[in-house]
Design brief:
Number of strands: 0
Number of helices: 15
Structural class: mainly alpha
Order of helices and strands: HHHHHHHHHHHHHHH
Length: about 325
């Protein structure tokens, strides 16, 4: 019992420390998830992996991770995407496909055998850490690969968001078009909000609409990946793969948040903020559990995937900017 409760308490403390660190200027740009991972890696580097707490740490890294993904569904308003963003949804699908295929292409050239390139491709194309966390159990990624990918997506996404705010005044885009560009090309929801905020409320609204379309694509993408993994396993004699039941939970929470909360059950902005904070905190605990699995020597293999991810992000930003700037779509 102590091994379970103690391990969960350990991730809780690291998550709290991550939230605290993320409030410090500079660290506030990368968010609590990445901060918790960095702290967990630092702890393991100094004190080693706490083997006595392994059951609780694995519970946080796996069970709490799936629960957080289910709660993440509350952030997706399906009604808004379907009623106002169908055109953007097609563009979002192209973005997701582009990011994944380009990352896979880079990884083949660099002979990268780990699951990091696929996780980074999904994170870049869909919705950052949440997408990585959702796909990770489907492809049976190592915890250290998942944690490293989340750390990289947070760092690179934040850098790109800050770069967007710097170049915005020099771009030939209306505020709404700039918002769309931010929403279809940046990694995390937080990155999108950060980049779009200086352009005003219209830009933020369009950015979040475009981004929510990418979040909506998480469910069909996971099902497609699951099918491909199962098919590959069948060819190799390893067809057993469990269905990711957190995906129906994610979709159910999205439907509940879209059509029940606010319509039949009154909710306040305070409640919505609290729900988002709880979701992020639980996901941060899961990241802490994964971060403790990272051996710094293993980070050496992440250099090439990181370079490939930056190249993918640059191409995605550049091509989508050209598309939006020189067409009448928006």
């Amino acid at each position: 019992m102590f091994a379970l409760s103690g391990g969960i308490a350990c991730t809780l403390l690291i998550a709290l420390a991550g939230f605290g660190l993320s409030m410090i200027p500079g660290f506030d740009r990368i968010g609590p998830l990445a901060c918790a991972i960095f702290l967990a890696v630092a702890y393991r580097s100094v004190f080693g992996y706490p083997e006595a707490l392994r059951p609780g740490l694995q519970f946080a890294a796996k069970k709490l991770l799936r629960f957080a993904i289910i709660l993440y569904g509350l952030k997706l308003n399906i009604g808004i995407v379907l009623s106002q963003g169908l055109g953007l949804l097609l563009l979002d699908a192209a973005v997701v496909l582009f990011a994944i295929l380009l990352m896979q292409g880079f990884s083949k050239q660099k002979n990268s055998p780990s699951s990091i390139p696929l996780l980074l491709g999904v994170g870049t194309g869909v919705c950052g850490a949440a997408a990585i966390a959702a796909v990770s159990p489907i492809i049976r990624a190592k915890d250290e690969d998942t944690a490293v990918s989340v750390g990289m997506i947070a760092l690179v996404g934040t850098c790109f968001a800050l770069l967007y705010t710097f170049v915005r005044p020099y771009l030939p885009l209306s505020d709404a078009a700039y918002g769309v560009w931010s929403g279809i090309s940046l990694h995390e929801l937080a990155n999108v909000a950060l980049a779009a905020a200086p352009a005003g409320e219209d830009a933020v609204a369009m950015a979040l609409l475009a981004k929510l379309g990418r979040v909506l694509l998480l469910v069909p993408l996971c099902l497609i990946i699951m099918y491909m993994v199962k098919r590959k396993g069948s060819a190799e004699g390893e067809a057993n793969i469990s269905f990711p039941w957190f995906l129906p939970g994610f979709l159910a929470m999205s439907l509940f948040g879209t059509y029940v909360l606010g319509t039949y059950i009154p909710v306040t902005e305070t409640f919505q903020t609290a729900a988002a904070t709880v979701t992020t905190f639980i996901l941060t605990m899961a990241m802490a559990g994964m971060g403790l699995d990272i051996n710094l020597r293993a980070l050496g293999k992440a250099g090439r995937p990181l370079a490939a991810m930056v190249a993918t992000s640059v191409l995605l930003s550049g091509l989508s900017l050209v598309l939006i700037a020189f067409t009448d779509w928006f």
